[in-house]
Amino acid sequence: MSESPHPLINFCSCYTPTRVLHQALTLSVLALLGGCGALSDVRSFSTPYSSPDDGATARLRVVSDGMVRAVPKSDCLDFRLPGAGVMVAYRDGYANRNAESLGIPPLDEPPPTTVATELRVPAGQPIAFHYIGARCYNMFSFVPKAGADYQLDAVGLYKCGVTLMELLAGGKTFSPSPLKESKLCRVTDNL
Question: Which end of the chain is less crowded, N or C, counting CB atoms within 10 A of the terminal residue's CB?
Answer without folding.
Answer: N
